[in-house]
Amino acid sequence: MQDLLLFSQVSPARHKQVLQILVGITAAQPAPFLEQHLVFEQLRLPPVSKKAPANQTTRRAYQHLTRQPLESNSWTLRKPEVPEPGVKQVITQSVSEVSLPEADLEKFRPGLEWYKFINQFYLQGHRFVQGNVVITISRVCPAETTDGDLLESEAPTTVNLPPLDPSGSYVIEACVRMEDGSTTALRDQATKELLAFADGLKGAIDLRVPDRLALDPRIKGA
Q1: What would the pLDDT profile of 149-192 be if each residue is shown by its tens digit?
Q2: Which of 8, 29, 109, 115 could form a disulfide with 40 if both were Cys (CB 3.0 to 4.6 A apart)?
């Protein structure tokens, strides 16, 4: 899969106003969402498939096990690649998301030398959809690690944790996801739709392209 992305940031003082702006544009009420993320350091690389994308990460990387307690308690392995280089109108990033059966979850347990647990956090906010554009406005909330097995624990449906950003700001992400990003016409169409959405928000919410290396999942020095 390939994600086309634009980002913005909004202060807590403007949060409700921005939600109302998005309600007006999408003609839908904000849908609350909650994601639990377990962050693991990759200790060794699996064999690289001959069909792997040319830009696939060749260094060890941080990978996330995620689940959405409001929708499902099953774990998904999220593996983003380094965003494509060059000056672009949008961020282009290949992402793999795979639902993990119990047998594959074993690799994330201590002592198997595949992954090392680093930390956990929650992503909490609201989601909108406009055509093929998915818009999220959320904050990262770090969570303390307990002594229990996080893979087996029941996830809460609400969290009341201080945000990682001490200012309390929210991150806005606008994303168009393509199952096949190799088709030029499809990518051009997706880019056009995302930019048109961003253009409609100018002056109220300024969506922009961040430094692509801020989305680099690779482990430094690995």
Answers
A1: 788 888 788 888 899 999 999 999 999 999 887 788 889 999 99
A2: 115
Render pLDDT for 60-103 as a digit per residue (tens, 0 to 9).
Answer: 888 899 999 888 888 999 988 888 887 689 999 999 999 988 88
User: What separation in angstroms does the CA of 142 have from each of 90, 124, 211?
Assistant: 28, 11, 23
Q: What is the extent of the structural domain holding 126?
A: 2-215
- Contact present, 199 and 158 (Cβ < 8 Å): no
User: Which is nearest to 134 in space by CA: 197, 181, 74?
Assistant: 197
Q: Record the tokens describing residue 202, joined without a space.
A: 């100018």
- The CATH number of whichever domain residue 151 belongs to comes to 2.40.320.10
Q: Is residue 220 part of a domain?
A: no
Q: What is the pLDDT of residues 186-205, one digit of tens each?
A: 899 999 999 999 999 999 99
What is the residue type of 25? I
Q: How many CA atoms lie within 13 A of 222 on its CB side?
A: 15
Please state the pTM of the whole predicted model.
0.87
